[in-house]
């Protein structure tokens, strides 16, 4: 196809995208994207024009969905960061409680958010603050231990969630509680405990007036937020107690002055930590800031390097604990242990400084959780792009390149498709699923650091990695098998396709390469080479015999493709001469009689074949493959004609 013709073929698609780009630019609702298609049909436009508009509409809706998802995630992280900043500056308990409930509602985007606190005297919990509530009876509810969803959370100190409150029989329904919930019109409710150490001081809720399934990440985020909220409540209570004590102990002017200095120092730390979070600081930045304030060395330690007993004790108690000459504060989020902040060389630590270390650990957990959420979002985007390259044959190459560019991947570079699979079977389904998740996570990290893509597929993982200048597909496959095996501590086998470029066109190229990698993977497993890596070129015609889907054209192309191309471009008979040469028992004299040419002509043609295929083309191993390829090519040509 000429360049002018190709450009004219693309022009309708470009025109079809224009109205949808305008809709994207002004943030139009989803239903507005039907208008260009309906208008084209009403105007009796050609079917090709309507089809182009339909395709452009689907692409635009997908982009709109991705943009909304990004905005939603950014809003959630922004709410967390703003909360950390606001709570650090609040001193009044009522203001703290109102800020917590407002931020919780904003964080999950729910209709209602509310907070109940434990009443030590009555032995129950009572509604303290609500946001978005309209029913007076609901705002005055009291929940006994084990009553309603909130009472169950307070009793068990565990998060609970229901997508339909009145149909859920896991907790005790009472007439008063159900009446209040019915007045408010709530259906889906999520409750997480507010804890200080091992003690539940209240429950933080987020609820909707419609059926809704709260995702695992949302529960974990609200749990981390609740931990920060509990600390803020504790801080506010402590500040109130401090002020009361200062009022009663007015005579101890020096004590008051010293205490105020410590509190101001703690407040300064909170402000500095909030500033670090807002400007995108990292875990080590938090450690450095706390080191300056506490006049010691604070370092972040992973779960494998932190003192085990002290780490578990800090996690259980919810406070920093002493370990020899050091202090250890567990870093946890949503019930998951992420590591610890270790303050070295400070055996005697002021209680306020101890709380400072503990709050720094909470901020660290928020940072780690936010980084993980961002990393998982990027992994999903990379997987979606690779899925589109594998499955969507009608994708616009230009849009694919733009999406890849945002992920720092170059679709015009030489790439290899690799299929990776675990070669060990776990004792139970949960462990096997966990091993597969770890394989996908390790592959996603490898793809992200190597400017490639990765996705979970067919019980394994598929990667799309750029090929180094001095590296073969086989070397890349073996290196990937070693890397993934070491990362997941399991045997990982990797099959690779032949190098291919570009990836965006033709659209079926990546899918064909994936099938080729799958066949190589199956060949490795049949040959007993688990834990190894190989490419199609490593098997020759054996790959055709071992694979369930025989890539005949690929084998013929790799084996005698240069001879076929030479005949096609120059009108020669090298392939026919090869066929006759093998049929005549590799005798030039008998070959010249069969072809009715001079023996010198046969010699010249065979010499040309040697220059195209290599000097060892007549070795026993090469002859077997070349003869098979010549025969397969003849059969496929006959079938086409």
Rg to the nearest angstrom?
34 Å
The helix tally amounts to: 22
Report the sheet-strand fraction: 5-15%
| Major beta-sheet overview | 6 strands, antiparallel
Ranges with pLDDT <50 over ≥5 residues?
1-13
Question: How far is it from the N-terminal to the C-terminal residue, by CA?
Answer: 24 Å
Describe this structure as you would to a colleague.
The protein has 641 residues and is α+β, with helices and mostly antiparallel strands. Helix content is 59%, strand content 15%. It has 22 helices and 15 strands. It has helices at residues 3-25, 35-42, 47-89, 93-108, 136-139, 148-156, 175-184, 216-248, 253-278, 283-294, 308-317, 351-391, 397-406, 429-449, 473-488, 509-526, 542-546, 552-570, 574-583, 588-595, 599-613, 620-640; strands at residues 112-119, 124-131, 142-144, 160-162, 188-196, 199-208, 297-301, 321-323, 326-333, 336-344, 415-422, 453-457, 460-466, 492-496, 533-535. The strands form three sheets. A six-stranded antiparallel beta sheet has the order 3-2-1-6-5-4. The chain has a five-stranded mixed beta sheet with strand order 12-13-11-14-15. Helix 19 (574-583) packs across helix 20 (588-595).
Notable features of this structure?
single chain; alpha+beta; five-stranded mixed β-sheet; 15 strands; 59% helix; disordered N terminus
Short description:
Helix content is 59%, strand content 15%. The protein is built from 22 helices and 15 strands. The strands form three sheets. The protein has a six-stranded antiparallel β-sheet. A five-stranded mixed β-sheet has the order 12-13-11-14-15.
């Amino acid at each position: 196809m000429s360049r002018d013709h190709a450009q004219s073929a693309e022009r309708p698609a470009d025109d079809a995208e224009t109205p949808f780009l305008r809709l994207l630019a002004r943030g139009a609702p989803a239903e507005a994207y039907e208008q260009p298609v309906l208008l084209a049909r009403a105007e009796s436009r050609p079917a090709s024009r309507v089809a182009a508009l339909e395709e452009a509409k689907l692409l635009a809706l997908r982009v709109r969905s991705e943009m909304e998802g990004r905005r939603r995630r950014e809003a959630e992280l922004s709410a967390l960061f703003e909360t950390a900043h606001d709570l650090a500056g609040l001193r009044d308990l009522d203001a703290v409680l109102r800020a917590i409930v407002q931020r919780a509602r904003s964080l999950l985007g729910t209709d209602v958010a509310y907070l109940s606190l434990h009443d030590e005297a009555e032995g129950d919990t009572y509604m303290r603050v609500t946001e978005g509530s309209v029913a007076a009876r609901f705002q005055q509810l009291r929940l006994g231990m084990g009553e309603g969803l909130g009472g169950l959370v307070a009793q068990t100190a565990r998060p609970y969630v229901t997508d339909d409150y009145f149909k859920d029989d896991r907790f005790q329904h009472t007439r008063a509680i159900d009446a209040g919930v019915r007045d408010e019109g709530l259906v889906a409710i999520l409750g997480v405990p507010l804890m200080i150490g091992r003690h539940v001081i209240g429950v933080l809720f987020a609820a909707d007036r419609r059926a809704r399934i709260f995702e695992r990440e949302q529960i974990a985020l609200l749990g981390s937020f609740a931990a920060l909220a509990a600390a803020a409540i504790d801080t506010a209570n402590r500040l109130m107690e401090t002020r009361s004590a200062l009022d009663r102990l007015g005579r101890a002017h020096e004590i008051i002055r010293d205490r105020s200095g410590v509190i101001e120092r703690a407040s300064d730390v909170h402000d500095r930590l909030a500033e670090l979070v807002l400007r995108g600081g990292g875990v080590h930045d938090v450690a450095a800031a706390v080191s300056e304030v506490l006049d010691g060395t604070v370092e972040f330690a992973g779960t494998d390097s932190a003192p085990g007993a002290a780490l578990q004790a800090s996690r259980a108690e919810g406070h920093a604990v002493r370990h020899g000459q050091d202090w250890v504060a567990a870093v946890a989020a949503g019930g998951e242990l992420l590591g610890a902040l270790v303050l070295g060389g400070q055996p005697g630590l002021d209680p306020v400084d101890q709380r400072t270390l503990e709050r720094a650990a909470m901020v660290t957990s928020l940072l780690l959780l936010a980084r993980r959420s961002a990393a998982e979002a990027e992994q999903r985007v990379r997987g979606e792009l690779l899925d589109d390259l594998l499955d969507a044959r009608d994708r616009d190459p230009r849009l694919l390149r733009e999406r890849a560019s945002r992920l720092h991947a170059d679709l015009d570079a030489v790439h290899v498709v690799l299929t990776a699979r675990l070669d060990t079977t776990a004792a139970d389904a949960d462990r096997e699923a966990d091993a597969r998740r770890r394989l996908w996570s390790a592959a996603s990290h490898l793809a992200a650091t190597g400017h490639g893509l990765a996705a979970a597929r067919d019980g394994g993982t598929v990667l799309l990695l750029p090929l180094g200048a001095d590296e073969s597909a086989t070397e890349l496959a073996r290196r990937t098998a070693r890397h993934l095996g070491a990362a997941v501590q399991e045997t990982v086998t990797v099959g690779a396709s032949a190098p291919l470029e570009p990836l965006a066109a033709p659209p079926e190229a990546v899918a064909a390469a994936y099938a080729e990698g799958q066949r190589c993977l199956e060949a490795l497993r049949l040959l007993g080479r688990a834990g190894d890596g190989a490419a199609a070129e490593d098997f020759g015609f054996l790959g055709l015999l071992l694979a369930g889907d025989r890539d005949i054209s690929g084998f013929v192309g790799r084996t005698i493709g240069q001879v076929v191309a030479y005949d096609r471009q120059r009108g020669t008979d090298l392939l026919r001469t090869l066929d006759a040469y093998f049929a005549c028992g590799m005798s030039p004299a008998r070959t010249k009689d069969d072809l009715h040419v001079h023996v010198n002509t046969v010699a010249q043609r065979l010499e040309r074949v040697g220059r195209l295929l290599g000097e060892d083309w007549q070795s026993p191993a090469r002859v077997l493959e070349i003869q098979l390829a010549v025969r397969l090519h003849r059969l496929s040509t006959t079938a086409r004609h």
